[in-house]
Please model this.
Amino acid sequence: MSDIVFLIALCALVTYLTRIGGHLVLSRFGAINHRVEAALNAVPVAVLTALVAPSVATQGLAEAVAIPVTALIGLRKSLVVSVSGGMICLLALRAIGS
Amino acid sequence: MCIHDEAPSTSQEPTTTSTFLVDVKDGARDALPILFALVPFSAVFGAVAMERGLSLGELLFASMSIFAVASQYVMLDLFGQKVPVWSIVLAVLAVNFRHVLYSAAIGRHMRGFSGPQKVLAFFFLSDPQYAASENRAAGPGLRPAYYFAYAATVYLTWISANVIGALFGSLIENPAAFGFDFILPLYFMGLVVGFHTRPGFLPVLVTSASLSLAVYFTLGSPWHITLGGLGGLAIAAALSTPRKATIDV
Model:
């Protein structure tokens, strides 16, 4: 087996372990504490926000505006509308800026 | 949201079939918007991998078995620098650590999945897969048909675009030209806001965003994802009161 194939196999294994690991660990516990429950309910907001935050601060004005605009539209409208609105805002600002 | 079949059914079988078909259709439909972002990025990865000297077979093996583009870039990059294998694997673990949290959170909504279905489902647990699945679980409920329809749409597109990029790498336009580079952040932002009725939404959002930025500019990427995320979870746990725990969202 060549070096790269061995490396790929290891990376695939590690990636899969992270994807199933959280569930395997959690399912060892029967009833979970309300604080753990609250933390798990916050995972989508907490982790996705942490993922996106640098895009607001490091990309430029158009990006810094488009993300909050998407968020504000998303408070009232569906996902398709908010993402489309954010895209239109982004493209418009990029067109003006360039 | 709630779709019933046109004709009243005489047994339970037709209803189940129609739920299944609606799930499959919704799963594929919900994946469509991110394909605009996925296609150019997968193609670019295919092109870069060939440039770095991978064969088409090795590229396919990587993309089919790892299926996590950020960590594949890290792997490719470090492999070129001749650093020890263990440190590459550690870097991949760091980039992918957020999946542990996705896994623990979404596993609670997989009651309708059989054992083998779960084993397969966790393989496909990418960022958009997780976000869409949480969204589905909060609405009509997360069933295997929805999950796997979404996963198949993303996975097949990812592999195809990889191959196209590997074969026609030189023809690829800069993804930023059409704003495609930014669909994913907007998509994630849109999904995050969709959860604004969850307890502690604003404190969690503010904590995760500020901590993520602080870590991003000090320790650097990829730690901002895991540490920013954990900060938000800590706030959610701290704000929790016992009775809320019984509400299944």
